[in-house]
Amino acid sequence: MSMSATQALEWEKQALREVLIDQTPRFLIWEPIENVMVLPASSKWRPTPQLTNHMAKLGWQIEQRKTGGSPVPQAPGVLNLSMVYPWPSELELSTSKSYQLLITILELWLSNYGVSVETGEVKGAYCNGAYNLSINDKKFIGTAQRISRSSTVNSKINVAVLAHAFILINPNITNLVDAVNQCYLQTGHSEVFSRDAMTSLTEHTGEVNVNYNKLANDLYQSAQSVIDKHLGII
Known about the structure:
Structural class: alpha+beta
Number of domains: 1
CATH architecture: 2-Layer Sandwich
Helix content: 25-40%
């Protein structure tokens, strides 16, 4: 489960290529072993030498990913769900529907621990978006996705969805927010984010000892259950 963000991002790319061919869903639950600022692959967020060197001095590597719209800090204490699944041709494809599948998975998973969440933007939170999951108006989970289509195979175009969620279990949230603010400052963006807009599972529940294996296994089961139902497997 623990791995480098580089390995996880490579897994996502490979899984997306494979699912477009074999239409079989794939899931990865992982926790980063190092501090990595993941930038969206866009001209707005170029990993310049100046930015890379500055973040390295603060203890952060730089990676890029073709999902999301703003930088995401990955660090120990952040649990990630990465999944790639086919979209059945008989179902209407929409961004909101695929996001709702991801939210359903996360809500099902959290129900194991009696945790309820809200969906929507949170003022002052980094990587803000309409599909944040929050607890008491504090961001707890961020989500992103990418929809890809294959080349025509026997007059059929396969569709696959890469979806992922970063879940704050017990990271040093102050360090995450400070790193994002430094990233914005070094790239000439004016936004400043607040520690008070973020929370974690342990901060909410008061639990000190975290069983990551149970959290990961429960999350895997929730993801597989929801996606199997979506695909009509069960």
